[in-house]
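Title: Comparing notes on inverse folding

I've been comparing how different people in this forum approach sequence design from structure. To keep things fair, I'm posting one structure and asking everyone to reply with a full sequence. Here's the target:
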């Protein structure tokens, strides 16, 4: 991590999902919870398909959930999608907690060591993520909140990456200029393009070598340990 520690950088911005934390496959948990709580049997393939539809809807609409009321409404809509996709004869109120309990986020093995090193070196560490307001709760539950200097989620800004507004908010929160920060994320479209639009140098994290291809001139990392 010497590049960050011994350079003129004062802040490192980080995407959340795919960069700091991962989501365990939720469809096995959804299937088990439906059986245990409701006596409903669904196949793993159907649970997988339904969750992918629900997750796609969530990603497209999470920016609307900027407070408790709007978050509750979004969660209800997502549960309605599950009910329809799986043809479940259950009240949507019963599905909301089941959907939430099927989602398990956990830090990658390199996350905590990296955050601790950056903080110890004096860098400001800010999460910049396309997420609803519950991102704060997720970071608390994964115990990453105590290793961060701030969180910028798209729902609270009202703009999603690659819109530079999210990065501008992070710069203001960190109290640094664009040239004093780097942004690390796993999406070319959201993280690389968005950071560049805000004048911030992007570093593309490619945990799976077969996934994203970095644009020319973009530094790539296989792990946060390489930063």
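Reply #1:
Here's my take.
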């Amino acid at each position: 991590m010497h590049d960050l520690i011994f350079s003129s950088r004062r802040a490192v911005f980080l995407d959340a999902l795919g960069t700091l934390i991962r989501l365990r496959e939720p469809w096995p948990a959804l299937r088990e919870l439906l059986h245990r709580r409701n006596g409903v049997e669904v196949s793993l393939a159907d649970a997988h398909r339904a969750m992918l539809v629900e997750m796609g809807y969530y990603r497209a609409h999470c920016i609307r959930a900027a407070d408790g009321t709007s978050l509750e409404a979004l969660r209800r809509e997502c549960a309605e999608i599950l009910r329809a996709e799986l043809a479940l004869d259950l009240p949507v109120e019963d599905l909301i907690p089941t959907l939430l309990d099927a989602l398990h986020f956990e830090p990658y093995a390199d996350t905590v060591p990296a955050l601790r090193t950056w903080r110890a070196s004096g860098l400001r560490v800010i999460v910049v993520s396309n997420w609803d307001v519950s991102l704060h709760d997720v970071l608390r539950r994964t115990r990453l909140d105590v290793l961060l200097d701030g969180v910028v989620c798209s729902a609270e800004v009202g703009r999603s990456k690659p819109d530079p507004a999210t990065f501008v908010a992070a710069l203001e929160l960190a109290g640094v200029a664009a040239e004093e920060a780097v942004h690390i994320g796993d999406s070319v479209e959201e993280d690389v393009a968005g950071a560049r639009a805000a004048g911030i140098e992007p570093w593309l994290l490619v945990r799976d070598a077969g996934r994203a291809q970095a644009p020319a001139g973009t530094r790539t990392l296989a792990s946060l340990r390489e930063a």
